[in-house]
Design a protein that fits this description.
The chain is of the alpha+beta class and 331 residues long. It has two domains: 209 residues, 3-Layer(aba) Sandwich (Chemotaxis protein chec); 70 residues, Roll (Surface presentation of antigens (SPOA)). The protein is 34% helix and 25% strand. The chain has nine helices and ten strands. The strands form two sheets. The chain has a six-stranded antiparallel beta sheet with strand order 1-5-6-3-2-4. Helix 2 crosses helix 5.
Length: 331
């Protein structure tokens, strides 16, 4: 049989509910009091808007890294390597994986102290060309890529190159946010190299490498979730330092060494009349204003750079340098 509550019992129940609500409100007020200023709120609803945000600092990072990449490849491979930066893209990780061919040289990297992983992808044709150069081949780009995997020897060779690339990547980040690149592992199949979920956004930086007649691309893929803590630093404008590029310096010096120059050594001067010039015959002697033991100037483009003596060396006309002229006032 159901029991019917009296009016006094109903009033007592309602009064108890009011006391519970007051206690909860007072307790929530106490909990909101302490606030940590180091905590940055994360908006899950508007997180996707980062894909439309520009990161000017990445241009400076990629420019610095591109110069280091060119120098590293030139020194390791002992050939002249050229590289170019392709504008960055912000796409989903799933879309990026669709562009990666199989097999590819994929390398998972940890950016300490940031959380998460980034990925470096090297085109298979570029990998095989690097191996061919290490093996002494003079014909690049002839290796069949489809239907084969990298051997253990090829993986060790490319791992050496990757370690050098990571050093250049660390230097490129020093001006923005100092990081330490820690090599984690390598993969061949993109399905086993998922660093984030398929729908997560990633920043893709591409570097076109040209080695003689062969070309390939190196991708640096960084999830937006990894750079979220330093987003403000990447959004600010950054002016890269003008650093010296050793590879280009070496190329300029090499070209200067093989540039042909015309050297002129005046033996002396003499003043004669027009009648004396018309009377000159084969075997006549013209008295010059210099002596046999006088130093003669060695001139390039009208500028005196050396002083020395003319003569013969192995049947060829020669000039023996006795003095280098660094200051025109020394003449």
């Amino acid at each position: 049989m159901a029991q019917v509550l009296s009016q006094d019992e109903i009033d007592a129940l309602l009064g108890g509910l009011d006391e519970v609500e007051e206690a909860e409100s007072s307790r929530s007020g106490d909990e909101e009091a302490p606030q940590d200023t180091n905590i940055i709120p994360y908006d899950f609803v508007n997180a996707a808007r980062m894909t439309k945000v520009k990161f000017p600092a990445f241009a400076a990072i990629n420019d610095y890294f591109n110069r280091g990449l060119r120098s590293t490849f030139s020194s390791i491979l002992r050939v002249m390597v050229d590289s170019a930066i392709v504008p960055i893209e912000i796409i989903t990780f799933k879309e990026f994986l669709k562009r990666v061919p199989v097999p590819s040289s994929l390398h998972i990297i940890k950016m300490e102290p940031l959380r998460g992983h980034i990925m470096m992808v090297i085109d298979p044709q570029l990998v095989f060309s690097i191996v061919e150069i290490f093996m002494g081949s003079i014909s690049l780009g002839k290796t069949r890529v489809e239907g084969r995997e990298f051997t253990s020897i090829e993986q060790r060779m490319i791992h050496r190159v990757v370690n050098s690339i990571l050093k250049d990547l660390e230097k490129a980040w020093q001006g923005i946010y100092p990081v330490s690149m820690q090599y984690v592992r390598s993969e061949i199949n993109p399905q086993f190299a998922k660093i984030v979920q398929d729908d997560d956004a990633v920043i893709v930086s591409k570097f076109q490498m040209d080695i003689e007649e062969m070309s390939g691309v190196i991708h640096i893929t960084i999830p937006l979730s990894v750079i979220q803590p330093i987003k403000k630093s990447l959004q600010s404008s950054f002016q890269a330092e003008d650093v010296e590029d050793p590879a280009w310096k070496q190329m300029v010096l090499q070209n200067l060494r093989v540039t042909p120059l015309e050297m002129v050594v005046p033996l002396g001067k003499s003043v004669i009349t027009g009648a004396e010039l018309l009377d000159l015959e084969v075997g006549d002697i013209i008295q010059l204003d210099t002596r046999i033991d006088d130093l003669l100037p060695g001139m390039f483009d009208g500028q005196v750079k050396f002083e020395g003596y003319p003569g013969l060396c192995k049947g060829q006309r020669a000039f023996k340098i006795e003095r280098v002229i660094t200051n025109p006032d020394d003449l």
